[in-house]
Amino acid sequence: MVFVRRLLLSWVLCILSSPLLAQAFTLEGQVRNARTNQPVPFATLGIIGRNIGTVADEEGRYILRFPAAPTDSLVITSVGFFRAAVSPQALLNGQREFALLPLEQALPDVVVERKPVHPALLGRNKEKGDVLWTAGSSGKETVDDEWGWELGTVLMPKHPAYLDALHVYLATNTYEQLRFRLNLYTLENGRPGRTLLSQDIQLTTTNRQRGWIQLDLSSYDIRLEAQPVVATIQWLQSEKTEPWDKYFSIPVLRQSKQTMVERENSQAVWSIHAMQPSLYFTVLMEVDKR
User: Domain residues of the chain, as ranges?
Assistant: First the structure.
């Protein structure tokens, strides 16, 4: 089995190719709710199209490291909020506190009765693969600049379905604590498009947990239509101690169809792979009575 240290490799290449390392630029501040002034936990920060980003902690506090002074706008996002963009000049002038405006949450007027359903599965439920797709801070002195990484797969429900549980297989894991966010996107031109979830749904692990990690989704009432959708897990947090020896991996199987998606942070460019990760959903799929 091939062991791919995806993020470590990209970091090494960045270090070797960057002549501006001596001009490193660091932002440290907080993301807050524009209406309540309360912290926005686990907000994501990134530069569009570049592998520069991070995730704020429970108190909305963040550290974002640039290889050089910023020349592009910083984008801040969080589930349930409008995105915000901050110009590079504002960053150079010292702006470190960012405010996100919450989205209006409309209450549904009509309760739709569910049709008959049956148990089904979407995704890949195998523990083995021919590649271990690995993320982490192994070999580095920091980990927060790796937060925001996403990995996922294209789902193809044949009929409308309700998500019952998420299952992700960790083949290796040296972190005492990991936190992920579940994201769902439309599929547009073969890549993730518009985000679909309005709730911040998170999965956590402790004590270097490995094997199948499960998250109960039955209470969220998430309904997928009978059309392609992209599901990802986004790395939000892990402990900062001894980052140079920390990583986790997910088995991946090579295949002919390009169904696995990945990006380095919330604003980076998506890459598409002819692979499928060990990630699946148990669902309740509507019965086709035709």
Answer: 20-100, 117-286
SS3 letters across the chain: CEEEEHHHHHHHHHHHHCCCHHHCEEEEEEEEECCCCCECCCCEEEECCCCCEEECCCCCEEEEEECCCCCCCEEEECCCECCEEECHHHHHCCCCEEEECECCCCCCCCCCCCCCEEEEEEECCCCCCCEEEEEECCCCCCCCCCCCCEEEEEECCCCCEEEEEEEEEECEECCCEEEEEEEEEEEECCEEEEECCCCCCEEEEECCCCEEEEEECHHHCCEECCCCEEEEEEEEEECCCCHHHCEEEEEEEECCCCCEEEECCCCCCCEEECEEECEEEEEEEECCCC
How many residues are there in the chain? Answer: 290
Using CA atoms, how far residue 146 sits from 65, 159, 290, in Å, is: 11, 36, 48
Q: Give the class (CATH, top level) of 117-286.
A: mainly beta
pLDDT of residue 107: 57
Alpha-carbon span 180 to 33, nearest angstrom: 22
Given this structure, which CATH class describes domain 20-100?
A: mainly beta
Taking 50 as the pLDDT cut, the residues of the chain under it are 7-22
> Using one digit for the tens of pLDDT, what is the confidence trace for 20-30?
444 789 999 99
Q: How far apart are CA 60 and CA 165, in angstroms?
A: 28
Q: What confidence score (pLDDT) does residue 287 get?
A: 87
Give the pLDDT score at 290.
60
The pTM score is 0.90
- ∠ CA 82-149-273, nearest 5°, is 110
How far is it, in rounded angstroms, from Cα 71 to Cα 73? 7
